[in-house]
Here is the input.
Amino acid sequence: MNDIAIKVENLSKYYKLGVINNGTLFRDIQSWWARVRGKEDPHAKIGSKYDPTAEGFWALKDLNFEIKKGDRVGIIGHNGAGKSTLLKLLSQITSPTEGSIKINGKIASLLEVGTGFHPEMTGRENIYMNGAILGMSHDEIDKKVDDIIEFSEIGEHIDTPVKRYSSGMYVRLAFAVAAHLDSDILIADEVLAVGDAAFQKKALGKMNELSSGEGRTVLFVSHNMAQVKNLCNKGIVLEKGRVVRMDDDIEKSINYYLGKNEDNSDVVTTSWKNPGKIFDESFNPLSMEMLDSDGKLVTKALDYDKDYKIRLTVDVKKPDKRIGFRMLGYRGVERLFAMPMPKVKEYKLGDNIFEFYIPQKTLLPGNYVFTLESTEINTRWIIDPDLFEIIINATVKVHDDSIFPSVAINAE
Here is the structure.
């Protein structure tokens, strides 16, 4: 096992439904007392329901894989696939129900913003605390602390309690600590989605450097396939708590996740319906579909010489002109364009239909992914495209190969 960093055998995790865990004993007692009286749980999430007849579910079931030292592994899957549960087990935050995990080396984890930081302590004090947790001496941390502060770019706030940090500052410091302190395995789960574009690029470069230069093992979870492709060399795809694919080529895992075929044949998944898991109290997407010029659902490859449109149906609970949305277009994993929302005077209560037009001869031959994003302007995400899989995809073809001889021959 000298070249193996992580070995997982028959790993499973079972969760009982309805178990109270609000983070504090007082809140747990409040939730329990409300249920005893048949009242609504005061700490329940919006839209969640407690089913006393339900027993539980397997978040992960019978996982078996090995990760070698120095590998950069992208763990891919839709929401609820078990990615975060797997990383918590590997980080020893929770224990498996069945199976075993063998780890060769120290682990540094970035599972969510602020994990492992004490809010009352300053950034500098948290650096030393994290180092101590990883088994480093005070002198060893002294040698690293200046590099950590410089990389985080928050030097003027390093002696401020971290409870006053923004989420972006949390991520900068947390990543800098995890990347610079002595660990053999770095685990990151979606945290870079909070940072700005410049810091994301810097962090990805650092992880590449750690893996290729220092031989560290990296496990990376993200819905941003461009980041996964740029960083990782291998892939694991999870579906409903099971490993459905493992590849030594990350692009094969990404293609499977995006619905592309192994032989790069036509990709047609031109409709999406909300399964009920995506819900917003003001702007709730119901369906999205690709239509031809006659208004019929597309069932085959798009014709380069024809017009198309994407129809979006949403349920508006609270009409608000501050709500904005747009359609994003990707060729492969690289974002090519963003179509702004159609011009509307106002939203109406109930179902609203919006259409995004794709004129003929706009998209070059290849495989495309279209996804939706929405925000309450300058306030919050409603639909973050990196977190929700509101996706349709299609292949664009040209019938006359002489128009784009090189593109047509080498189209994805």
Q: What stands out?
A: Confidence is low (pLDDT under 50) at residues 45-54, 404-412. The chain is about 25% helix and 35% strand. Residues 340 and 398 are 26 Å apart (CA to CA).
